[in-house]
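Hi F.,

I've been meaning to write this up properly since the lab meeting, where we talked about keeping a consistent format for the predictions we share between groups. The idea is simple: the sequence comes first, exactly as it goes in, then the structure tokens exactly as they come out, then a line or two of notes. No screenshots and no reformatting. I'm using this chain as the first example so we have something concrete to point to.
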Amino acid sequence: MQRRSGAARKYGPVIDRHCHVLPGLDDGAVDVADSLAMARQAQADGIAAICATPHIRHDHDVAIAGIRGRVERLNETLRREGVACRILTGGEVAETEAFALDEAELDAVSLGSGGSWILLEPAPGPLGPSLREAVDHLAACGYRSVIAHPERHPAPDLHARLGDLVRRGALVQATAAMFVEPSTWMVELVELGLVHVLGSDAHSSRHGRPVALARPFERLGAIAGGHVEWMARDAPSAIVSGRPLEVPFEPRT
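Output, unedited:
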């Protein structure tokens, strides 16, 4: 029997819902060897599944219709190489692209193909009204939003804008590496109820952030207390399967 490692020992199967693991597609894994190394990195950390989230953005020529086939081919490679971590479908949808996607495209980039949640990438700079409009548009199409990497958008009104998005049904996903040595600012986001889940946002095994969640969740537990199990296990599982999800805490903004 394979011994579980990392976060899996404490929280059960862990899912990374933000990872650029598909080879040669966007600014993520450069080739299959890189993708394979990322999956092995994830498995060593206790991650059971990864949502492949290529950029759906004007500066990356990603054919949405081809994502599922790419995921299937990578999973076949992982099986052949004896890697247990599996790849799920998804996409990181720029707020400016959300309005242009049709029903089939939204379903194809929904996290885990659960048909319920879209990973939404804010435009550079402070969060603006168009992000709220994108969240509302996706909600009208039957999807809730997971707002990616809020730590990239510091502004005096960040807390208020995130709180508004959460009250509109969105979740906020911070980048896991930010909690290896959490800053006062990141701790404040958690304490205000403005972080719901973590994602690696890893792009390669050769540089940058690793495909790792165990240590960040360990550090997050000291801040989020009893909510960390929901953040590490319950919320990610519900997101990728499309099950109903109720947030056990409110934003305090």
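Notes:
The chain has a mean pLDDT of 94.
Residues 11-241 form a domain with the TIM Barrel fold (CATH 3.20.20.140).

If this format works for you, I'll send the rest the same way.

G.
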